[in-house]
Amino acid sequence: MTNDLILQVGTGLLLVAAAALLANKFKFTIIPFLIIIGMLVGPHAPKLGIIDLRFIESFEVIEFLGRIGVLFLLFYLGLEFSIKKLEKSGKNIIIGGSIYIAINFSLGLLYGWATGFSLLETFMIAGIITISSSAIVAKVLVDLKRTSNKETELILGIIMFDDVFLAVYLSIISSLVLGDNTSILGVISSVGISLGYMLLFFIIARKATPLINKLLNITSNEVFIIVVFAALFFVAGLSETIHVAEAIGALLLGLVFSESDQSERMERLVIPFRDFFGALFFFSFGLGIDPFSLTGAVWLALGAVVITIFGNLIAGLIVGKKSKLSFKASANIGLTIVSRGEFSIIIANLAIAGNLSETIQPFTALYVLLLAIIGPLLTKESKRISGWLNKVPLPLFKDQAIGK
């Protein structure tokens, strides 16, 4: 059993390596290749002698390794920034996040209603359409070397704002779907805990940096990385227990450590783990999608993709304008946060648990897959797209000179 498990994981790693080679050959982000290769295998795939492409025994292991990848992706992204930078953008983040959520959630409600879903199912569809994938966004920013771009601070802030909204949304929708009698006071308490938890990290970053520097002043790289990773996994696990996404916990810890004297050393040591485990996350995501279940939701998913791209682009342009960013930077915001992923899947799983429409699961899988492929493409080509959009008469943005 153990040998079979190791062989299956090894087979999965070979497929990940094949996807990496393909992506490198075409000089494109690895994400779509990993998801598609994952979809081509799994429970529906054949067993070829000792090579089991169904990954039945190893799926949970690969999925867990993928979760670790999300932690490293968000932790690294946090290291690339600082609390001071985010504090300067605090007002813009709150305004920008509110605009982003309002536009996308409203479009999701309209789409769910227009396509004939019940009221409760419509609220589920709106949630699926609204929340960006922090893992994919983080990976694309790193792959395209955009972590130093001015608009990336705002993108990071919107991701964090998304998580606050997600805490509110899941608290309310889970009580409605699962019949869990959560009171209004309970919802407010849950949101307050999430906000207080995030605020705690901001305070630690500002007040405890000398202590952190002292604790991390470790000569041995071996001991240093053990200490850092122990903190990362503990904080991520603790975050989950108080209903803050583990990925956001990793992001917050990265932001705290970015203030320390050891931040560059951490970045250097974390990169190999980020790349390896991050690849496994996207492979495991594809592994969980049955391509034969997607045909009945094609048009529904395509329509959702169109309104999501439209909603994100408009939101990005408005948010960028209010933050006094250039047209190009504003377009980058909308075209970067268009990807959907892990959070949409969580909401779809909640719909399944509540015995809602069976269409929601294949719709979500196809919708997420399409945007996981299209999103990185839009981000990569954002300069060309923003240049084209700048020629379109948009009175609201006429004073946003491209490149300024």
Question: Describe it for me?
Answer:
It is a single chain. The protein has 404 residues and is an all-alpha fold. Helix content is 75%, strand content 1%. It contains 18 helices and two strands. It has a two-stranded antiparallel sheet. A hairpin with a 2-residue loop joins β1 and β2 (51-52). The longest helix has 29 residues, at 150-178. The relative contact order is 0.16.
* Average pLDDT level: 83
Give the biggest sheet: 2 strands, antiparallel
- Report how far the terminal alpha carbons are from each other: 60 Å
Question: Strand sequence of the main sheet, in spatial order?
Answer: 1-2
Order of helices and strands: HHEEHHHHHHHHHHHHHHHH
What's the short version?
This protein is 75% helix and 1% strand. By secondary structure, it is an all-alpha fold.
Question: What's the arrangement of secondary structure elements?
Answer:
Elements: H1 2-26, H2 31-40, E1 47-48, E2 51-52, H3 59-79, H4 83-88, H5 90-114, H6 119-130, H7 134-143, H8 150-178, H9 184-207, H10 209-215, H11 221-241, H12 246-257, H13 263-287, H14 298-322, H15 327-336, H16 342-353, H17 360-380, H18 382-389
Antiparallel strand pairs: 1-2
